[in-house]
Amino acid sequence: MTEALRFLFGGRARRRWIHLILGGALAMPYVLVGSVIVGPFTGVNDVFASLPLQLGSFAVGLPIAAVTSLFPLTRPLESGAARALCGVGADALARGPARTRAERGRTAAWFTLHLGLGGIISGMSLAVPPFAVVLIVLPLFASLRDRPLGLPESLDHPWALALSPIAGLAMLLTLAACAAACGALLARWAPALLGPTPEDRLAAAEARAADLAVRNRLARELHDSVGHALSAVTLQASAARRVLDTDPEFVREALAAIEDTTRRTVGELDAVLGVLRDGDTPGTAPAPTLAADLDGLLRRTRAGGQRVTATVDADPAALPPLVSREAYRIVQEGLSNALKHAGEPVGLRISTADGHLEITVENPLDTCPAPRPGGGHGLRGIADRVRLLGGTSQAGASDGAWRLHVRLPLKGST
């Protein structure tokens, strides 16, 4: 019972009723145009004095409404009204004008359906309530039974007077049921007639995927560059503080490394944030590569007191630019993980074999400190970079050491 009352008189039903009344109001100009056509055709001057002629004018006006619905603004306006009043989800309706013939046809069908059902419900909403109220109060007012309103003589019988309030209530319930059913029908058909086509959905999905890919790439860049810089600066500052009074030369080297690290990171951060700012041009700081900054990366890492042994059996300058750039980030993240979580010494090996660039970062497990809270995105970022280049990556414990091993294909990486 509660569900039935909510379906007939709930907030959603009332909004859909308003949507139908709006359709009836939009139908009125077309009904007037139809009456101009029906009147001379039937030879009747007052078309609105006859219900059949009114319905004929309404039927003639609907095709005219279908033609005018081809204007570009019709679809966005109808979609907005259906979204606000019919309770249809925003993603289920298109926002732009109809572009193809099929979309224009569906828009015309929706507009005709909206105005047709809206005109019927509007007419019923104007005519039914006053007559129903008269039937409800008819037994209480004898003056109404003198037929000033043109009521039929059958209502003078006692049984008719007893049933007239019930009939009035039934008419009101029937009106509410018709309005609720028509509103539900429009809400059901709105996604099919006003919704985006499969091509539109595919284009939107591709746009979202492209946007997500850009966001993921920027997130990886920020994590790798800024995360590594903060880890390195923290370790360098901590090491410098411990030997401040005993090894001034080491302190100077650590401070110089901190300065170099922060300067480079600010440049990289500006380049990444430039992409995020609407209307701004991206920063001009070049993306670091193995050929340009491998030695600097190792120097800044060692400046914090971390023992790093590096074996490079490849020519960084001969690597494809994309591989060199992504390999730099992978090495940077591997060393960053070693700074935060690993023991000493850290071994780095870069070599080429079978048309692949191989990167290995390992450290002994028995000297690993307790894990620090937070993090957890570094290895995922490495896996994403490797997958985009068509390579493979492995990370985990092996033979008493923690090892990160990456293989990147050199051919086709342009």
UniProtKB/TrEMBL annotation:
CDD domains: HATPase_UhpB-NarQ-NarX-like. GO terms for molecular function: ATP binding; phosphorelay sensor kinase activity; protein dimerization activity. It catalyses: ATP + protein L-histidine = ADP + protein N-phospho-L-histidine. It comes from the Bacteria. The chain crosses the membrane at residues 20-41, 53-73, 109-142, 162-187. Keywords: ATP-binding, Kinase, Membrane, Nucleotide-binding, Phosphoprotein, Transferase, Transmembrane, Transmembrane helix, Two-component regulatory system. The keyword Phosphoprotein applies. Residues 215-279 form the Signal transduction histidine kinase subgroup 3 dimerisation and phosphoacceptor domain. Its EC number is 2.7.13.3. SUPFAM superfamilies: ATPase domain of HSP90 chaperone/DNA topoisomerase II/histidine kinase. GO terms for cellular component: membrane. InterPro entries: HATPase_C_sf (IPR036890), Sensor_HK_TwoCompSys (IPR050482), Sig_transdc_His_kin_sub3_dim/P (IPR011712). It is an enzyme of class 2 (transferase). The keyword Transmembrane helix applies. PANTHER family: NITRATE/NITRITE SENSOR PROTEIN NARX-RELATED (PTHR24421), NITRATE_NITRITE SENSOR PROTEIN NARQ (PTHR24421:SF10). This is histidine kinase.
